Structures are given as C-alpha cells and as structure tokens.
Amino acid sequence: MRPLSGGQVSAVAAPAVVLIPAPRPSADGDAVGVLPALYVPAADQWLSAATGRIAPEGYSWMQAVHWVAGSGLYRPRRYRSHGPRSFGPTTVFVAQLLAELSPCRPGIGYLVRRTGLSERAVQNHLQMLRETGLLAYVSKGTRVSGEPPQASEFAWMVPVEFDDALGIRTAGEGTERRMTGIAQAGRERMACLAKLAARKVRRRRSKTSSRTGVKGARKAASEASATAISGGSRCTPMGGGADGSSTAGTTSLPPEIKLASGGSKSPVPKKSKGGRQKLNTVGRRFQLARELTQELDWLRGCSVPRIAWVARSVADAGWTVTEVKAWLHFRGEAARVRRGSGLLSVLLSSAVTVLDTPEKRAAAVEQWRGAQEAARRHRIQQVRARTERYEGDWEAPASCAVQREVEAAFAQVRDAANGGRHQDQDVDAESSVPTETEMAQLCQEAEQRLAIGDTSLITVAIDAMGREAAERVYGERLVRRALQLEGSFRSSLMTIGHR
Questions:
Q1: Residue 274 pLDDT exceeds 80
Q2: Hey, what's the torsion of the CAs at 339, 344, 347, 348, to 10 degrees?
C-alpha cells in the first residue's frame, strides 16, 4: 500500500478505524479484507527497502507495536510451522526493551539476560518484529573468526498500515516522513494506544521462581502482563485531551545512559562500604586452589579450576592451605608425581571425615610444624657434622692408589692414638684393603643405616675417596640410594618417619 501524501486522507482510512478490532482478539473477515495481512519478506526488511516511516522516538514506536499486537493482522504460523503462535505479550516485552536502546543495537546475549528466554526464542521474536514492518535492518551483525561479534542495528519503523488505519496525515518523502495530523475518527483509538504505550510490560514474579530456574523464568516471560507506571499524561499536537497522544510532537528524549539501563539509576556499581567483598562458595574453592598451586611444588602448572574441583570438599568445610598441607604431610607425599590433580584427589578422599572439627585440624597443624622443625634440625646436624669432619680446603685424591695410601696413613694415626700400633711400624698398603667378609659386613651395616635414614657412612666414604671408590666398597645400588635420600632431605616434600 502506497504512503499517503501530505494533507490527504485515503478513502479507506475512516472506515478502517471502525473495522479494527479491540486489542488482543483476532480480526474478523471484514477487517482483514480492508487491511491486508501484515507481512514483510526477508528481502524487504532493510531500511533502504522499507515502506514505513522511521519513528521519532521509542514512545511513538510502542504505539505502533501495541496496534500490531491488538489488530490480529499478523499470524506467525501462516509463514512457518515453528516458533511463537501469535504476536503476544512476550513480543511486546521484547519490543519494550528495544525501545530503551538508542541506537537500537541489541545483542542476543543482552536480550536473553533481560527476558529469561532462550537464544532461539529471542531470535523468533525479533523476526516477528521485522516481518510486521516494525523493525528494519540498518546494518546486520557480523560473525568474523578472530574478531569480536558485532550486533545488528535496527531502526524503529511505523508501518504504512498503521497510518492508513488511524487516518494519520504525513509530510515528506520515503522513510523520513513525519506526522502532521490525524483524522477525527482515529483520535479515540490513538488515545487507547497512548495509554498502552505509557504502560510498562513486566514479567510476573512467581513464588517458586528461585527454584524453577531458567524454565520458570521463560514461563514467567510468556505470562507477561501490563502494569502501569508513574508519569504524567501526554498530549497530542492537535489539541486533544490529556489522554491522547501522537507519533509527532516534541517529546524530549532522556539521556542514552538511562535508556541503556532501563531506568534512572546509574549503571556504574557503587562501591560497598564494608570494604572487600566476602567470597562465596565458588570463590573460596578457587582461592584455596590458587594457594595450593603456589605453595606445593608438585601442583605447579596444574589447572586452577581443576584443582578447585578436586579440593571442593575441604574448601567447603573451611580448610586453609596450611591445614591441607598438614593433612598431606601425614598422608605421605610421593617424590615423583605424574598427575598432580589425581594424586591430590586420592590424598584428600577422607580428609573431611577424619579431621571433621577445627580442633582436630589445629592439632594436625601443630604436629606438622613439629615434624618440619625436627627435619630442619636433623639437616642442620648433618651439615654441621660433615663440615666439622672435613674442615679445610683438602680434597680427596682421584687416584685409587693414592687413596689407599691416605687410608693407610689415617689408620696408622688412629692406631697410634688408641695405643695399638706404633708410628714406627711398617704397614703394607695392601694390608689396608678389606677382605670379602669385611666388605660384606660394611655393606650390611650401610644398608641397615639407610633403612633408618642415616646416610653418613656412605656419604663420608664418597667425600673421602670419591664416588667410584665408594661404589667398589658398598656397591652401586647402596651408593645411589644414599644419594637419593640425601637429596630428599633438602626437599619439603619428604616426610621423616613415614612411608
């Protein structure tokens, strides 16, 4: 249907006002015959191909939205077999959110959060607004790989059928037409639309909404109802009553910051007066997981969300990282870890059950600190004894023959100090070489000491004669075991007295 020129009223404008049905019921056969069904194909849903006019602001556009919702001229199931069955309150609620945005560039995620609908439902309602001629693309959103997605921008449109039905006179050309007046027969209907546009459609709050989740939110959105809002009445430019309104006029627009937030409150959150915000359950889990990955060497490099999931039981029970380390000390820790999160899951399996009170956890922490202090003192004693035994800059000779001569000289000194052999006795170098029986006894004694964690017998031999000579005396296996124990004493993962 072609737009009306300025100062002229179409021949069907006045009868159409009478034939438009009341809000919400479907139109009868005569009305549909006078005003054809509203439908804009996909190719004509752009601003450049639109036949309607651009609404000056969101309030005037909502008048056209309520007219389409009550006219019954648009039925979605005529054009598809899925999606909403009618242009109902949920579609009006989505349109109301769009009327708050300037420019109208809504993201799908934004509408999903505000309405509680699914992405597909939001897309269906946007499609209905485009097919009725109420929205037109200014630019279509993009989805380029490697770049942030861009939302589509729409223009608020007033269909030609709305102007024809209410006898609205316009001036100008194309989509930039503006309203100049309205026929007397359409004033009553315009006053009703003004009241509807002055109301805000809200979702009904259900008593069980907190338990129903997203499904309940979608059901509440489908049962939206019109609720009056505070504010003064609006007047038409034709001198009508206080209840009338018009798509023209000089209605002042609120600032964009209010339109984007849907109210007069500032979108910038206020700082809490209580200082640092208290962590919730998930926050405590992640905090404990982050501290564990920082303080335990075998958990470094692990995923913090995975560790938070593994340690969720102790985090929910209020454990600190010190209490977790104390529990891991008594459970025993492995020197070689392939998968840190898996080992942590096994070690924490019964932690909450065994240490079920804060008193037990405090006692475990005290015992762990005592064991740490004992291990520290043991290492200090070993280092001190080694330093006192081999004080100075002397180093053991590399030659085996020289080492045997040095051992023979030391033996003579010890015998002389004990009153045995005299210094003037000639001792053959070969007599200092131990026999097989003595070698077996030395190995047996070294193995017994290693069983209780004493490595001094073998480490002294290594420092005095070198590793190769010590391996000939005690064997390669015992020497390697002694060096491993000596290295583990310097690690915080070693537990003394536990296997």
A1: no
A2: -150
